[in-house]
Amino acid sequence: MEFRQLQTFVTITHAESFSRAAELLGYSQSAVTVQIRLLEEELQVRLFDRMGKKTVLTAQGRQLLEYANRIIQEVNQAKSAIVQDTELSEPLHVGTLESLCFSKLPPLLGYFRSNYPKVPVKVTTATPKELIAMMEKNQLDLIYFLDRPRYNNNWNKELEVREPIVFVTSPESPLASRKGLRLVEILDEPFFLTEKNENYRRELDQYLESRDRVITPFLEASNTEFIIQMIRRNRGVSFLPYFAVQESVRAGQLAVLDVTDFGVAMYRQIFYHKNKWKTREMGEFIRLAKLDLT
User: Fold this and answer.
1) Which residues of 18-35 are buried (b: 16+ CB within 10 A; e: fewer)?
2) How far apart (Å, rounded) are the C-alpha atoms in residues 153 and 145?
3) Considering all CA atoms of the chain, what is the largest pairwise distance in Å, rounded to the nearest integer?
């Protein structure tokens, strides 16, 4: 039994596909198939069943997975102990949201580039649901997102920071100087919102639905930076994390509305899967995220 066979085996369980595992590992699909066949012949068991387009573990496969994860973690721990004093150089793949990508990652990744130039960093943006699915399939090292507090026995949580969500508009809007606004007073304004059913937008819609009201946005977009640019140039309203707009507010380009009867907070969170070995590169990213560099 070879270590690379166990790595291939674990990757297939996350990807649920021989072809996807081959792509992630940089092998040909035939090489992956051969590795698993040799492993099955040595153990004299069948490790996978094909269910439609998915590849799922047999009972013997699930049993091997427990041992394989432990072996891989022990090997990674040994490697980490041996190379503790060497320069960081392993790849880092982070999954995050558009809003965090524009607001929180630039200073953090700038520090990485200056201090750890040998670390190849890849950033993938998606929704929280999509990021979690990718983490579960070992397609990301860690995920950094904004949502209601999430918990799962299969995840390690490394960060949870409360972040207010605010209504913003152009400083030229008559609403910008008003105090004690009620949500109903701004509903007729043109709204520029993130896509429906995602974290803070979902909270706003659910609150309005509970009061038999609804918002029909003038524009919906997944890119929060685009929304911010549109609000700066128009007298519309948006509902965004304060960290995403604070620079524009400080510069006098946006104004936070004083809406007193509705408030929401989300939480910046970092997770990685419990079966994932936390590399030094992951640890340093987490450390810097906790410092909240600006």
Assistant:
1) bebbbebbebeeeebeeb
2) 18
3) 75
